[in-house]
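Predict the structure of Glycosyltransferase family 39 protein.
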Amino acid sequence: MGGTGLFQTLGRIAATRRNSLLCAVVLALGCATRLYHIGSMPYWLDEVTTVHRSSLSFGAMVHDSLVAHHLPSYFWIASLSGAYGLGESVLRLPSAIFGGATAAMLYIIGMRAGGWKAGLVAGLLMALSPLQVQYGQEARSYTFVMLMMAMGLWGLVEIARDPRAATLPFRSPGARLFPWVIYTLGTLGALQVLSTAFFWLISANVAAIAVGLDPAVDRRRFWWRWGIAQAIILGLTLPWFMAMAVATRGNMGSGTDWVPAMTLHSFTSTLGSLYFMRISRLISFHLFPVVVPGFGALLLAFGLLGVVYLRRAGGQRRLASVAPTMLYALLAVAIVPPLLILLISIGKPLWMPRYLLWSAVPFFVFVGLGVAVLPGRWLPLSTVTAIALLASVNLVPYYQSETKPRWDLASRDLVNILEPGDMILVPDRGPITIMNFFLARDGQSIPDDLWTRDIFKAAVHVQDGGRVWVVEGKVGQADHTPPKSYNAILAPLGSPIAVLPEGDLITFKLFDRSPDESLIAQGDAAPRL
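Done. Here is the predicted structure for Glycosyltransferase family 39 protein.
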């Protein structure tokens, strides 16, 4: 008995050291993939908002956040980073760290659900996912809220893993307070960052039903503790949203009015980047060519394998720590958020990668569980190695992809090619705002009298012998003027004599010959830009 106890103790120590080492490796890898080339792409419109808000006083920052339907917590953290400079690398640093920490958190969740191999696969996928890396290089709050929700999921997994211990009196032997604290703090933290965390809160409450029905649970005590946790979370969260309602004058629903209507393309593109590890362009629904054919399908197969094996008794013998309660809880948090967003998007568009980013977390856990239940010793290990290598190869082209519009280069090139008397025509103020942001770094700007949105003013300028530069390109994720409509509006200018691309997403068109006078004669009856 003494020898057996010694071996058990040594085994626990070895497992603890192994888990600590692997968690540290995943953390380092997650941070490294996000810090590498973190400043290679310029800010885009949303990030410029972060730059502006981080420069405000605390009170002004809180007010500006609430008016814009945002919570101020992330912007306060960004302001601390911004004290060391407002360049891309510095201001994006918190997001990179939060993203790396989320990968480490996934290792912990997967390990607790199905062993170290499940945790390693889940953590590696989070560390190497192109979409997750891209948001980790974004001066926005999405990786922060993901870290907090992952923390909440960790607590929920611990509760579902041993519901009896989670509902014992706290002074009893084997009772566990820790899962309740972690769940509450994580969920509360998420709701202090982004309102989309309410989807996590809803899914967690659905998962709680599965836990509450577990035959080993003390149902009265479970629901009492669960109710206290929800009361703490909502009690400390709702005041912020009441303040937001006041700041927006009750117009709370307008914060997502910019989201484009869901199409088949946007639907499949989002799924491709979220679950199938496709490299995408953050500012649009564009998917870059497949890097590793079949890799996404392989992950989906392992994810389904994880579900199937957890459902069957054989799978539960291999993963003794996982009860049916765990399966139902994980399924709830995996399915409920995307399903709710999909249903809402039928009436009010909300289907965007940024709002679905969290859904990858439980999916990666299921993939890890699918690998962990493979038979034998070497097959799971070789599969973990293969997934790590394929994910690494799949990520490499991301760093050479133009994932954001190069308004930094466009602004510099435009002022260099402008001649005295030239006019700039834009569809809205967005291109001027973003170009002036970058020009301000060199003490330059595009003055208001140099640009216009009036197509007929531009046409008259060309007819009088002047030159007009039309600037086309995406500034944000919403297309105010679709390309086809844009080209139709430009008809009074005639045909451009030069078309100059600025990367993949921005184009300059030069007009300097007499336009179609019959179109000019229509005057204000035709549309304006």
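Confidence is low (pLDDT under 50) at residues 522-529.
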